[in-house]
Specification:
The chain has about 300 residues and is of the alpha/beta class. Helices cover about 35% and strands about 25% of the residues. A six-stranded mixed β-sheet has the order 4-3-5-12-6-13. A six-stranded mixed β-sheet has the order 9-8-10-7-11-14, with helices on one face. It has a two-stranded antiparallel ribbon with strand order 1-2. Helix 5 (about 110-115) links the parallel strand 3 (about 95-100) and strand 4 (about 120-130). Helix 1 (about 5-15) crosses helix 4. It starts with a helix and ends with a strand.
């Protein structure tokens, strides 16, 4: 039996993650669909590739052998596709970028346009991934660049700051605290809160909730999580709750709301990262284009530094 490429991709994800749940998320399938593909691969090859244990799964001897060869086969296939596509437009480069659309910057469209219109055009392939998947993709060289919040932990990744800001609360314009100079964490104790979806960045979400809990002295009343940045101010305007968000994500005060800085939470920053051994021309061109728009040390968002702003 000659395995299908998609089956090999599913197997390799599971073999490296040692978790069918994480592997399914990585390849964009449901867990049952991924399990079916791996079972079909095992039946076709006549071997057991994984051994189920109380802690999850582990590779069998056959699984180890296939993992080594699958990486080589899929890597060679990727190189063949890249080389073939390069014959169409030799001067064109492709760059794979991992980020969430939730994180938006006013200069991002300008950056993409400049890359496309440069003497050596760069096509950006976007991958919608959560924070942990971005870091794994960079380490495994599946991504060229990743947008990351509050830096990276892996020593093989290089980080460059883009934007720094603070946590703010978007509330309805008629909210009792809309005109406050700033909100203390204690003042949020009885507030209903709207936060970003935890799956976007579990580490950041948990750190934010832990800081809120410590400052409030109680469990935060999170009534809704949203994956859509534009939905947060709308929910706040409707009176559902205060939308807690990084200041640099807001272009201006949303109509019918007020933006109030929150005291007691650590500043937040976002940047981009790449693998230290990535010397691809596309990455060099991307960094040069970005440096022309954003200062190398990043930008500080000083809006709402000490007082509320309101839009009617």
């Amino acid at each position: 039996m000659r395995p299908e490429v998609r089956d090999l991709e599913c197997f390799l994800a599971a073999a490296e993650e040692l978790s069918f749940r994480r592997a399914a998320k990585q390849v964009g399938l449901s867990q049952p669909a991924l399990s079916q593909r791996i079972q079909r691969l095992e039946e076709g090859l006549g071997v057991e590739l994984f051994r189920r244990t109380s802690r999850g799964v582990e590779r069998t001897a056959a699984g180890e052998v296939l993992r080594t060869h699958a990486k080589s086969v899929l890597g060679a296939l990727d190189e063949a596709v890249t080389a073939t596509q390069a014959t169409l437009r030799p001067a064109e480069h492709r760059l794979t970028l991992g980020h969430r659309d939730y994180v938006r910057f006013p200069w991002f469209a300008e950056l993409l346009r400049n890359l496309l219109e440069a003497d050596e055009p760069v096509i950006v392939d976007h991958r919608e991934l959560d924070a942990s998947a971005i870091e794994r993709g960079l380490l495994r060289r599946k991504l060229d660049v990743g947008l990351v919040v509050d830096g990276v932990s892996a020593p093989d990744l290089v980080h460059r700051p883009l934007q720094r800001g603070r946590w703010v609360a978007v509330v309805a314009a008629d909210h009792p605290r809309a005109s406050s100079g700033a909100l203390s964490l204690a003042s949020l104790r009885d507030e209903r809160l709207v936060l970003f979806l935890r799956e976007i960045n579990p580490r950041l979400y948990d750190a934010l909730v832990a800081s809120l809990r410590e400052g409030m002295g109680a469990e935060p009343r999170v009534v809704y999580q949203t994956a859509q940045l534009a939905a947060g101010p709308e929910l706040a305007r409707s009176g559902l709750g205060a939308f807690v968000v990084a200041s640099y994500l807001l272009r201006d005060v949303p109509p019918g709301t007020a933006v109030v800085p929150i005291e007691g939470l650590a500043p937040i920053s976002v940047g981009y990262a790449w693998h230290v051994d990535n010397h691809a021309p596309a990455l060099r061109l991307f960094r040069r284009a970005l440096d022309a728009i954003v200062p190398p040390r990043g930008r500080d968002d000083r809006r709402w530094a000490s007082s509320a702003r309101e839009a009617r």
